Amino acid sequence: MKVTYRVSDKGNSGINYRSKTVTGNVFALQGYQADIDGHNQWSGQNYEERGRTFLALRGQAMQFETAKSPVKMATIGNEVVLIKNINSDWNEYHLIVKGNLMMHIINGQLMSLIMDDDTKNNALEGFLGVQVHVGPPMKIEYKNFKIKYL
């Protein structure tokens, strides 16, 4: 999937994928999330909303297996250098999600990668959605969604 996004300075959002609905809250999803925020504290990371929390921070390639601790497979790059690839205006988020592999790419730069072989907790299908956090006033804009099934 590719999408262009822009977020205000205090914005905090994300793209949820392979998610399931949350009982009792029609506007909430549980599952993988490609993080986006205006200060680039979280942008590019893989976070599991209402689940295992941070799966891969920016600059990490992580592997998950059932009943084992996560393993850091590699360092993708220095976080300070990776942040320089994120603009204060429009950015392109590219998500490559196939089988157990999930890659978060912003403006052509790989930001995080996970291999999720945790059959107890992973998801191979689900809903796609966009998130806006509660908190200070913010603006998040998306355009040009492109989805290709692999």
Provide structural commentary.
The chain is mainly β and 150 residues long. It has a single domain (2-146), classed as Jelly Rolls, CATH 2.60.120. 3% of the residues lie in helices and 57% in strands. It is built from 1 helix and 12 strands, in the order E-E-E-E-E-E-E-H-E-E-E-E-E. Strands 7-6-10-9-8-1-12 form a 7-stranded mixed sheet, with no helix packed on it. Strands 5-4-3-2-11 form a 5-stranded antiparallel sheet, with no helix packed on it. A hairpin with a 2-residue loop joins strand 8 and strand 9. The protein is globular. The model has no long low-confidence stretch (mean pLDDT 95).
CATH topology: Jelly Rolls
- CATH architectural arrangement: Sandwich
Number of domains: 1
| Number of extended strands | 12
Helices and strands, in order, run as: EEEEEEEHEEEEE
CATH superfamily: Exo-inulinase, domain 1
Poorly predicted parts: none
Shape: globular
* Percentage of residues in helical conformation: under 10%
Class from helix and strand fractions: mainly beta
What's the total helix number?
1
Strand percentage, roughly? Answer: over 45%
Mean pLDDT: 95
